[in-house]
Amino acid sequence: MTFLPPPSETCEPCDPPGCVVLALPREIDFCNGTGLLPLIMTAVDQRSDGLRLVVVDLTATRFMDSQGVRLLDEVRRRLPGGARLRVVAAPGGVPSRVLELSGLRRDVPVHDSVKEALRS
Questions:
Q1: Which pLDDT does position 51 carry in this prediction?
Q2: 56 pairs with which residues across the strands?
Q3: 44-62, pLDDT tens digit by residue?
Q4: What is the pLDDT of residue 10?
Q5: C-alpha of 98 from chain center
Q6: Between 94-102 and 66-78, two packed helices, what is the crossing angle to 10 degrees?
Q7: In the prediction, which pLDDT does 44 show?
Q8: I need a surface site. Which of 12, 31, 65, 94 has the fewest CB within 10 A?
Q9: Is 70 exposed, middle or buried (0-12, 13-18, 19+ CB in 10 A)?
Q10: Is 92 exposed, middle or buried (0-12, 13-18, 19+ CB in 10 A)?
Q11: DSSP per-residue string spanning the chain
Q12: pTM of the entire structure?
């Protein structure tokens, strides 16, 4: 259950003011899905002053089941007012397909790269 980079570290210069970028592990499933939520929310809380955008990077994630969908939906609901969630997932990868099949992709924008997610 490792973030890439750890959520307590800023990712300079890719974390512009008001933004936090969090890379998630290679697998998100029943074994680690619930444990990731407090880690993500701790990182969000550390940047909550003026936070406007949270980017969750799934490009290194090779497996994700419904726990990943549940995790992203819960993060979206717990974000402070005015903050938005965006997801980065490789086109054609498992996370991208799971987000499409679950319908979460309608509520959370999914981008091909962190740079694109920060720019939009």
A1: 92
A2: 22, 87
A3: 999 867 899 999 999 999 9
A4: 45
A5: 14
A6: 70
A7: 93
A8: 12
A9: middle
A10: exposed
A11: ---SS-TTS--TTTS-TTEEEEE--SEESTTTHHHHHHHHHHHHHHT-TT--EEEEE-TT--EE-HHHHHHHHHHHHHSPTT-EEEEE--TTSHHHHHHHHHSGGGTS-EESSHHHHHH-
A12: 0.85
Name all contacts of 6-13 with Cβ < 8 Å and 24+ positions apart.
7/39, 7/40, 7/42, 7/43, 8/42, 8/43, 8/46
Residue matched to tokens 């809380």: 45
Question: Residue 14 — very low, low, confident or very high, per pLDDT cuts 50/70/90?
Answer: low
In angstroms, the Cα distances linking 34 to 8, 9, 18, 24, 101 are 18, 21, 26, 13, 21
